[in-house]
Every structure is written in structure tokens, then in C-alpha cells.
Design a protein that fits this description.
The structure holds two protein chains of two kinds.
Chain A: H1 2-12, H2 16-27, H3 30-46, H4 48-53, H5 57-78, H6 85-88, H7 96-118, H8 121-131, H9 137-144, H10 148-165, H11 171-180
Helix pairs in contact in A: 2-3, 2-5, 3-5, 5-7, 5-8, 5-9, 7-11, 8-9, 8-10, 9-10
Chain B: H1 3-18, H2 25-40, H3 49-58, H4 61-67, H5 75-95, H6 100-120, E1 123-129, E2 139-145, E3 150-156, E4 159-167, E5 170-175, E6 181-184, H7 200-210, E7 211-213, E8 224-229, E9 234-240, E10 247-253, E11 268-274, H8 287-290
Antiparallel strand pairs in B: 1-2, 1-11, 2-3, 3-4, 4-5, 5-6, 7-8, 8-9, 9-10, 10-11
Helix pairs in contact in B: 3-4, 6-7
The chains are: A mainly alpha, B alpha+beta.
């Protein structure tokens, strides 16, 4: 137990908020976020030795968190996504106009998450670390265990694929929908 | 700004906007409870059973004991169960109880092994006697090789009487008394168990399809099988070699004449030699080889 507390105080506590938010930003579902966090903690515990020895343990922990989130996305690809129960709890129901906007935003979100789930693992992690966590290429490289050049290539290829897959979306239109929500 | 750079910018903006940092406070609270559970493993943790199961499998023993979900066996329970099963096994073994099911499976397995090995045989040399018919009874010698050729010599006390060559259902017979040979379809005059012994495949077919395997005979359980031929009620005992699972001998006993069931005297015995070279010319119909 002391060991787990030590790991928590030493490695997880400083990153607690970033871990939660990184996971949430990718899975975007309360229940899935909880389970994904549990998975990430499990992996951190199993790999605690490696995490401690890592030159940048914080980056590795965040990468593990995103990795678990990516796994969740991949699982969702295989099974229909569960709708948030909290949406159903919104009583009384939102007006029709609000519903339309919510559904549009939801559809946009699904398409983006689906595209990320289609990316190869390293490209997905590199893109998420770069765009979501705004990490430097050096940190991404350390977390992924590759050179900085390779990390740049992962990000570049991942971006290119996402651009191709999401070309039919108009980002400005999506922004408007989101702002209105 | 180049088109590529603008596209990248648009993509980044799209991703940031869709994957926005809007963690609901309720979700954050629940996730922090998970973190707290990981940190101190409080008894009041409200994790789902699945999550508890996952953690129970990999977290240190102190966590595992506290969080072992209901319905999942602990090591102590498994150890007790293992010990109880060991004791039960010893008791059953020493008590001499035998499982009918286990014995049946064992016999069936032997029967299957026997038929499998028969189908793999390369050659067969079999001598069949019918002691029940007295000293004048003919003696049969059947030789078979894997390419399907069978030769059956019929001997009486006076000497070789007849030779039959059987290949692909055609029978060529040669009589030594008359010196005449004839091509005939398989004769109905072959009485049991001769048709079953024309080739190992015929014997295997009888064992697997026609004869009914009988329950354990304790005396010979390790090297013999007993079958009943329902067509005439005869009992067939097949003794086999335990290392090769090929028959050594076969006894066919007709049912008792009084109709009370059970085998009567030995009517036919067959003795086998397997996988020994057989001269090919013996298996080709010819007067010379017949002699």
C-alpha cells in the first residue's frame, strides 16, 4: 500500500488534473472516462518500475492515459457507442432547435473521434499529444520512445490522414455549431 | 500562409474545438474518486465490479484482499478446494469405486485405436480355424497387402483345396482338385467371420459399424475387447497387442444353443501377423502361384 501511495504522490498527483482532462477530451463520456482512467492506473501500476526509470515520467504517464483513451476509441469502433445517460436526465427535454444543434455537434464529435480511432496507434498518440496536450516534439519523442524526427513524422502523417478523412467537414461550421451550444 | 499550413491550422482548430476541455464537474468528481481509490483503497470505493475485477488481478495483495469482488475466489478458497479434490480423489481411488462412464470411455478409446491401426496396416497374414467343426474342418489362410490384393487359401486335412484372389470386389478362384479357375463375384459361401477378415478395412468396418462394443470384461480389460454381432448374437473377443493396438487373435463364439444367452463354445479362431513382407506374386491369380 505504501508503494501505491508513493507512486501516487510521486508521479500521479502532480499530473492528476492533466490526466483526467486528457482522457475526457478523447473519450468524451463520463462512464468511459472513468473506466479509461481505471485502465490507465492499472497500466501505470503494472509498469511502475519502467515509469520511475523513464527520463520523462510525466510524459510517459500522459502518454499512457492517452493510450488508454485511444484503446477505448478503438473498442467503440467495434461496438456501438453508448449514449450518455446524463443526456437522458436533462428534464425537461431541450427545445427542438437546441436538440438539432446538439445532434450536429455530436455527429461532428463522433466523426472526429472515429477518425482518430482509425489512425495507427503511434500517429494517434503523437497527434493527440501535440494538439491536445501541446507537448513539444522532444517530449512526444521521449514518451513514444523514438527520435524527435520520428515523432515529427508521426504527427505529420497523422495530421495528413485526419485532413483527408475529415475533409468533408467544414471546421468553421463546426465551430459555429459548437459556440452556439 | 501556404495552403498546407492553413489546412493544418484548420485541422488543429477543429480538433481543439471538438475535443475541448470541458470536463463536467460531476465526471471530474467521480474520476477523482477512482484516483483516491487507487491511492488509498478505501472500503467505500464505489467502483464497478468490472473495474474492481481488473484491479484485483493486478494490484498488490493488500489491495487484492480488500477489493476481491464477491464471487471471485481468493487464493485460500482455491487452495482449500484443491485439497478437498485431492482427498476425494484418493478416497475414490482407495475405495475401489469405478466410474462406468470412465470405463466406457476407456473401452471406446481402445476400440477407436484398434480401428485406426487396422486402417493403417501395411499387410496382414491371418490363419483361421474352426475347431468346433472337428478335425475335418478346413483351415483358411488370408494374406492381404495394402494395395487391396487379398489371397485366401482353403486347406483341408488332405492339403490345399482352393485359392481365392480378391481384388476390387472381383474374386478369382482356383480349385486344385479340378484344376479349373473361375472368375466369380464374392461368394455367399464365405461364412462368418471370414468376410470380416478379408482385409483389415473390413474388420475395422465391422468393429466400428456392425459389432456392438460390450462393457468391461475385467479379466482382459487391458488387452481385449468384446463385441456382440447382433445379426446372429455371436460374441467376438478381439485380443490385441497393447503397444501396436493391432489384433493378435480373434475368437468368435456363437450364442448358446439353449437360448439362455452368453457365448457357447469357440467356433472360430483367427490368429494375425501384421506388417510382414508378402511375396507379390502370391497375390496375383495364377496357377503357378496358386500352388
Amino acid at each position: 500500500m505504501e508503494d501505491s501511495e508513493g507512486i501516487y504522490e510521486e508521479l500521479i498527483a502532480p499530473l492528476e488534473s492533466r490526466m483526467l482532462r486528457s482522457i475526457w477530451r478523447v473519450v468524451r463520456s463520463s462512464e468511459l472516462a472513468e473506466d479509461t482512467l481505471q485502465d490507465a492506473l492499472t497500466i501505470i501500476w503494472k509498469k511502475r518500475g519502467m515509469v520511475r526509470r523513464h527520463p520523462n515520467p510525466q510524459a510517459l504517464i500522459l502518454k499512457i492515459s492517452l493510450n488508454s483513451a485511444y484503446d477505448t476509441l478503438r473498442r467503440l469502433k467495434r461496438s456501438p457507442r453508448q449514449e450518455e445517460i446524463s443526456v437522458l436526465n436533462n428534464v425537461p427535454g431541450p427545445p427542438a432547435r437546441e436538440v438539432t444543434r446538439t445532434l450536429a455537434a455530436k455527429e461532428l464529435e463522433d466523426q472526429v473521434l472515429h477518425a482518430i480511432g482509425r489512425l495507427p496507434r503511434k500517429q494517434a498518440l503523437a497527434v493527440l499529444m501535440r494538439i491536445i496536450q501541446e507537448e513539444s516534439f522532444d517530449v512526444i519523442a521521449r514518451a513514444l520512445g523514438c527520435s524527435e524526427v520520428t515523432a515529427r513524422i508521426h504527427v505529420s502523417k497523422g495530421r495528413a490522414r485526419l485532413q483527408r478523412w475529415l475533409a468533408h467537414l467544414d471546421p468553421s461550421a463546426g465551430k459555429e455549431a459548437s459556440d452556439e451550444c | 500562409m501556404s495552403a498546407d499550413r492553413r489546412n493544418e491550422h484548420d485541422l488543429d482548430r477543429l480538433l481543439k474545438q471538438v475535443l475541448k476541455d470541458d470536463l463536467p464537474s460531476e465526471t471530474e468528481f467521480r474520476m477523482k474518486k477512482r484516483l483516491a481509490a487507487f491511492r488509498s483503497a478505501p472500503e467505500s470505493s464505489d467502483d464497478t465490479k468490472a473495474a474492481q475485477g481488473r484491479r484485483w488481478r493486478i494490484l498488490p495483495p493488500v489491495f487484492a484482499q480488500r477489493h476481491a469482488p464477491v464471487g471471485v475466489f481468493r487464493k485460500e478458497v482455491l487452495a482449500c478446494l484443491s485439497a478437498a479434490m485431492l482427498v476425494a480423489g484418493v478416497v475414490i481411488h482407495l475405495g475401489g469405486y469405478q466410474s462406468l462412464l470412465a470405463n466406457s470411455i476407456s473401452l471406446l478409446k481402445m476400440s477407436v485405436s484398434l480401428t485406426e491401426q487396422l486402417r493403417l496396416a501395411r499387410s496382414m497374414d491371418c490363419v483361421i480355424r474352426m475347431p468346433a467343426l472337428g478335425s475335418s474342418a478346413p483351415r483358411y489362410r488370408i494374406r492381404w497387402v495394402r494395395d487391396g490384393h487379398t489371397r485366401m487359401d482353403v486347406e483341408s486335412p488332405r492339403g490345399l483345396e482352393r485359392t481365392l484372389w480378391i481384388f476390387q470386389g472381383n474374386v478369382t478362384a482356383f480349385s486344385y482338385e479340378s484344376g479349373l479357375s473361375s472368375a466369380t463375384p464374392p461368394g455367399p459361401d464365405l461364412q462368418e467371420p471370414l468376410p470380416a477378415l478379408v482385409s483389415p478395412n473390413d474388420l475395422a468396418r465391422r468393429i466400428s459399424e456392425t459389432w456392438e462394443l460390450q462393457p468391461e470384461n475385467k479379466r482382459h480389460i487391458s488387452s481385449s475387447l468384446v463385441f456382440i454381432d447382433h445379426r446372429d448374437g455371436a460374441t467376438i473377443e478381439v485380443y490385441f497387442d497393447k503397444s501396436s493396438y493391432l489384433p493378435v487373435s480373434l475368437n468368435r463364439k456363437p450364442p448358446k444353443a439353449d437360448g439362455k444367452g452368453g457365448p457357447g463354445g469357440v467356433a472360430t479362431t483367427a490368429v494375425f501377423i501384421w506388417n510382414q513382407p508378402i511375396e507379390p506374386e502370391l497375390l496375383v491369380p495364377s496357377l503357378k502361384s496358386g500352388r
